[in-house]
Design brief:
Butyryl-CoA Dehydrogenase, subunit A, domain 3; disordered N terminus; Pla_a_1-like
Length: 192
């Protein structure tokens, strides 16, 4: 999993630091682009969490001086970190067989499969995004949202069962929604 993170960090570094030949109307401006972007996304969707968006993106210092493309990559990098960390957490939980009943254990196994797929899908999304295949990037990020939702809903199928992954699922969904909104803003800023 670590090599995926290195790959994305390399791509993010090159995308944000190495100058590109063409400029666009979405290039970095002096305004705090994180606040502006999160506010725009929150204004467009009642379910979008402005505070989560702001707090998450602010954890990466380079995001304060980047453009929309860079912010989308930051959000996807954070989603990849979340998904990779969740895989590690699930592995640890699965080694503790006495802590979970058979139903919860089966749910964790399902979540492991979903999250392993999510990691690969996020990497594919980044590749599609960097190739300017924005529709594919959005489709694959939407699939990651579905995976986290499915993981969470699996535990809810048994009355009284509590998911040990609720926060991680929620965070992954919010990070993907942040990336999806930014890509949406980016594609609507580009003339057809």
């Amino acid at each position: 999993m670590r090599h995926f993170s290195y790959f994305l960090s390399f791509c993010l570094f090159n995308f944000l630091v190495i100058p590109h030949g063409k400029s666009s109307n979405t290039s970095a401006v002096c305004v705090d682009i994180i606040n502006q972007t999160c506010k725009t996304c929150a204004d467009e969707s009642a379910s979008f969490n402005y505070n989560f968006c702001l707090t998450s993106l602010q954890t990466v210092p380079v995001s304060h001086a980047t453009n929309l493309q860079g912010l989308a990559l930051v959000a996807m990098e954070l989603a990849l970190q979340n998904a990779s960390n969740t895989v590690s957490s699930i592995k640890e939980l699965l080694t503790n067989t006495t802590s979970f009943d058979p139903f919860a254990f089966a749910c964790l196994e399902d979540c492991m499969e979903l999250y392993l797929g999510a990691v690969l899908t996020i990497v594919d999304s980044v590749g599609a995004f960097l190739s300017e295949h924005y529709i594919n990037a959005k489709l694959w990020l939407s699939l990651v949202v579905e995976s986290a939702t499915t993981c969470e809903e699996g535990f809810a199928e048994k009355k009284g069962e509590v998911s040990p992954l609720t926060k991680k699922n929620h965070d992954l969904i919010q990070l993907c929604n942040t990336a999806l909104c930014i890509i949406h803003l980016l594609t609507h800023a580009i003339p057809s």
